[in-house]
């Protein structure tokens, strides 16, 4: 197996934190990915990874190799992109991540349409509501839905996305309707939480400006669609993107709560690593996404 391929596997395994996840990103079985790592260790005559049943981490020399190999691979990928731009037909693999809800409803169908028009491009789509370090994990395009903080990444806005607090008619009948943000303290709030999540509070739009509200509840989960289902089942109040629950609101399955002080809206768009020369297939995909998704939210 080529030295470069082994390096790619090693970098992806370290970035993803496991051999199975790193191999999956590269369409390799865990056994095949593990063999690539062993080939590298045999080449250098040193252990590169410390493996336990619960954790994988680079050794000291493995961390040095990772830092340098990541830069080499990024430079090679950028060089290939530059050369491909002269060929006139973008081709190769695009690694795309998106939040679970928007990924299922909007991005997965978008990928099929895009690849139908551009058969030379392969897309490896990963859906997750966790915070993703797109540079460390080798992601080409990350769809983002939320409040964008200062970032060294390149940003392409697609649309603004309103949010709404919702509860089922059954929940409201049992527990009443909050009449002010302070009343949320007396209600079971359904929370989206995952490692490094900032959502331990809800920010509501009030006449005095955005107000952070500390909320709590008996249930939290790392999948937004589960929150919606819990709200439909009468378990509590959920904070959801309006487009995701629009049909439920129109059908009366969910009711809007505190419409006079809705949650702070979100931005929807694409994040990409900042590079001097953008891969043509990345630019092509993002342009396609912006055109296709402008009115979807």
TrEMBL record:
Give residue ranges for domain HTH lysR-type.
1-59
UniProt keywords (A-Z) are: DNA-binding, Transcription, Transcription regulation
Q: Which residues cross the membrane?
A: none
Q: Which Pfam families match?
A: HTH_1, LysR_substrate
Q: Does the keyword DNA-binding apply?
A: yes
Domain of life per record: Bacteria
Q: Which family does it belong to?
A: Belongs to the LysR transcriptional regulatory family.
* Name of the molecule in the record: LysR family transcriptional regulator
């Amino acid at each position: 197996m080529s030295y470069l391929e082994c390096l790619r596997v090693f970098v992806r395994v370290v970035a993803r934190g496991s051999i199975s996840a790193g191999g999956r990103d590269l369409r390799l079985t865990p056994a095949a990915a593990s063999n690539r790592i062993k080939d590298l260790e045999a080449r250098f005559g040193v252990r590169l990874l410390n493996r336990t049943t619960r954790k994988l981490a680079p050794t000291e020399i493995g961390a040095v190799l990772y830092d340098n190999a990541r830069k080499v691979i990024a430079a090679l990928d950028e060089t290939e992109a530059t050369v491909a731009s002269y060929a006139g037909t973008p081709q190769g693999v695009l690694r795309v991540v998106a939040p679970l809800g928007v990924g299922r409803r909007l991005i997965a169908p978008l990928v099929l349409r895009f690849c139908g028009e551009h058969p030379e491009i392969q897309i490896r789509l990963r859906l997750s509501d966790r915070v993703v370090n797109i540079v460390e994990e080798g992601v080409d395009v990350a769809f983002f839905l939320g409040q964008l903080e200062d970032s060294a990444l390149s940003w392409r806005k697609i649309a603004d996305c309103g949010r709404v607090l919702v509860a089922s008619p059954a929940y409201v009948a049992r527990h009443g309707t909050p009449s002010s943000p302070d009343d949320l303290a007396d209600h079971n709030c359904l929370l989206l939480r995952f490692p490094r999540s900032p959502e331990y509070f809800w920010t509501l739009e009030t006449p005095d400006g955005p107000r952070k509200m500390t909320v709590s509840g008996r249930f939290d989960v790392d999948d937004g669609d589960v929150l919606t289902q819990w709200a439909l089942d009468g378990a509590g109040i959920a904070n959801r993107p309006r487009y995701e629950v629009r049909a439920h609101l129109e059908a009366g399955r969910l009711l809007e709560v505190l419409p006079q002080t809705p949650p702070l809206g979100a931005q929807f768009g694409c994040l990409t690593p900042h590079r001097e020369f953008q891969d043509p297939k990345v630019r092509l995909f993002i342009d396609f996404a912006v055109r296709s998704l402008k009115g979807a939210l």
